[in-house]
Write a structure and sequence with these properties.
The chain is of the alpha+beta class. The protein has helices spanning about 20-30, 30-40, 45-65, 75-85, 95-100, 100-115, 175-180, 180-195, 225-245, 255-260, 280-310; strands at about 20, 120-125, 135-140, 145-150, 150-155, 160-165, 200-205, 210-215, 215-220, 315, 320. The protein folds into three domains: about 1-25 and about 115-245, no CATH class; about 45-115, no CATH class; about 265-315, no CATH class. Helix 1 crosses helix 9 (about 225-245), helix 3 (about 45-65) runs antiparallel to helix 4 and helix 4 (about 75-85) packs across helix 6 (about 100-115).
Length: about 350
């Protein structure tokens, strides 16, 4: 008999649903401990804030294009977007401008001007039925999942919708990463549920900093059950810990996840008793990954302190961290070569 993980849940009324955005759900899908810790710390960064400014500038320019009825030329769209970028928040304005290359602006303006406004289904900053905000209720687990699409438009086929997602960071997205990512499987889940006549969503990532555009990746309705299960399991985990804050939160450490986790320094996994490697070798290695990530973040923080204060951190007990580490007094013996004059004399 197959066990359904939803058997323990009872359908909830829409008014009692927990609202969950994509980034929060993705953290629960990655590691519930990360999600819990990130809810307790200030996770805002200059990179994230400049990314928001880039999205806002492209959103405003798209709104202007829609308001014009599609008559704005590529050069006019480009100038509108550039003006919005120049007027970004002053603390992150330099990185905001670096986040969108000029050739990206031109390519994007030409692309947008080639779309009939009637075919732009949803976009970030849109109003009413054109809003980029999409949601779907999962009453079986008591959660309403939401996300914001940058741009969703119709193409030649009525059965296919097309999404472009803007990224202003330095990461280079591959087709495989788009295909496997929680973000875009969740986007496909929301689009296919909200548009029942659509049989597939094609998604591309446009990196505005490097002007790279990935190949279109198809997310077909035939795989909707897979996308639904992944989103539902993340939502179920979120609901359990949202309604039961005292429930122990599991951690799923790995070298890849922990090394990129902003909350690694706070993770209790890195401070718990050392496992018996014979009893649980995989758990031992997962804990090693968490400890390594915590140490890397601590070193980064200490380096920032040293840069600010201009001196090493030296403890009364002799431990120290910084750039003034003494050289070894006893040179190590090793095999080496020296240059010689090879000419005969």
């Amino acid at each position: 008999m197959t066990h359904d993980p939803l058997d323990a849940f009872v359908d909830a009324e829409p008014s009692t649903l927990v609202l969950a955005d994509r980034s929060t759900l993705e953290r629960y899908a990655t590691c519930p401990m990360q999600a819990r810790l990130m809810a307790e710390i200030n996770s805002h960064s200059d990179a994230a804030n400049s990314g928001l400014e880039v999205h806002e500038a492209l959103s405003e320019a798209t709104r202007d294009y829609m308001a014009s009825g599609g008559v704005l030329s590529p050069s006019e769209i480009m100038e509108e977007a550039a003006n919005y970028l120049r007027h970004a928040r002053p603390d992150v304005q330099p990185d905001t401008l670096d986040g969108v290359r000029r050739d990206t602006l031109w390519a994007w303006a030409k692309f947008l001007s080639g779309l009939n406004p009637q075919n732009i289904v949803r976009y970030d900053g849109g109003q009413g039925s054109r809003s980029g905000q999409l949601a779907w209720d999962l009453p079986a687990v008591g959660v309403r999942v939401t996300t914001e699409l940058d741009l969703l438009y119709a193409g030649p086929s009525k059965e296919v919708l097309h999404e472009v997602d803007y990224k202003s960071g330095r990461a280079v997205w591959t087709a495989s990463e788009v295909h496997d990512s929680f973000q875009f499987q969740m986007h496909a889940f929301l689009v296919l549920n909200n548009y029942p006549d659509v049989q597939a969503v094609e998604i591309r990532v446009w990196n505005t900093r490097s002007n790279r555009l990935t190949w279109s990746i198809e997310f077909p309705r035939a795989k909707l059950a897979e996308y639904s299960a992944r989103v539902t399991m993340a939502a179920m985990t979120l609901y359990q810990h949202d309604r039961n804050p005292d429930l122990p939160v599991p951690a799923w450490p790995s070298l890849e996840k922990c090394s990129a986790c902003p909350a690694a320094a706070l993770c209790p996994v890195s401070g718990r008793p050392i496992k018996d490697v014979e009893a649980d070798p995989q758990g031992f290695v997962r804990d090693m990954a968490a400890v390594k990530a915590r140490l890397a973040l601590m070193e980064s923080t200490a380096k920032a302190w040293i840069k600010k204060h201009g001196r090493d951190i030296v403890c009364d007990t002799g431990e120290a961290f910084g750039v003034d580490k003494p050289k070894s007094r006893a040179p190590l013996a090793s095999l080496y070569t020296i240059e010689t004059d090879s000419e005969d004399k």
